[in-house]
Design goal:
single chain, 176 residues, alpha/beta, Rossmann fold, two-stranded antiparallel sheet, 7 helices, elongated
Length: 176
């Protein structure tokens, strides 16, 4: 059975549960792990997203935006997914925290070997994580492929989005 994790745009943490229980939730749903194993896994996932064990006692309302993203990522990784789905993963983060979060996801992806499927409008996030793209415009996919393949497509949306004055320039090779 294939496993996947989902990182929602605003974290989707359970507001009535502390961080520890938010991360433990999918592990408990398995109903095959004892609390000692769950504790070890929760602490491991916290460390993986650069949070400390003490953060497990905090409630979601006590977290910064960046911490919410990290806790949500830890929960998404709890079941060691083969596929991680990201919905606007850096929405609401300032540029420095956004870059740090993208770096964290990329590092974990390399370390754990999961595939990322992402929806984003943020070019910095896109260039930081994507090796292949599917561009949606006019309610359909207008380009799909590697960075050079997508950039070679002559479509107004692609020209405007990737080279428009409102976004940073993206080279033919992306940033990889």
């Amino acid at each position: 059975r294939r496993r996947f994790g989902m990182l929602f745009q605003h974290g989707a943490l359970f507001s009535a549960l502390p961080v520890y229980d938010n991360i433990a939730f999918p592990l408990r749903e398995l109903r095959c792990l004892d609390e000692g194993m769950i504790r070890d896994l929760v602490l491991l996932k916290l460390a993986m997203v650069e949070l400390e064990a003490r953060h497990g006692r905090l409630m979601p309302a006590e977290l910064s935006g960046g911490m919410v993203k990290r806790v949500a990522l830890a929960r998404a990784l709890a079941l060691e997914p083969e596929l991680l789905v990201l919905d606007e993963p850096t929405a609401g983060l300032d540029p420095d925290r956004s870059a740090s979060f993208v770096h964290l996801i990329r590092s974990l992806q390399k370390e754990l070997g999961f595939t990322v499927v992402m929806v984003t409008h943020d070019l910095a996030t896109l260039t930081g994580l994507a090796t292949r793209l599917a561009v949606l415009a006019n309610r359909r996919i207008v380009a799909c492929g590697t960075w050079p393949e997508v950039m070679a497509v002559d479509h107004p949306f692609i020209r405007n989005f990737f080279a428009g004055t409102h976004t940073p320039a993206v080279s033919q090779q992306g940033v990889r």
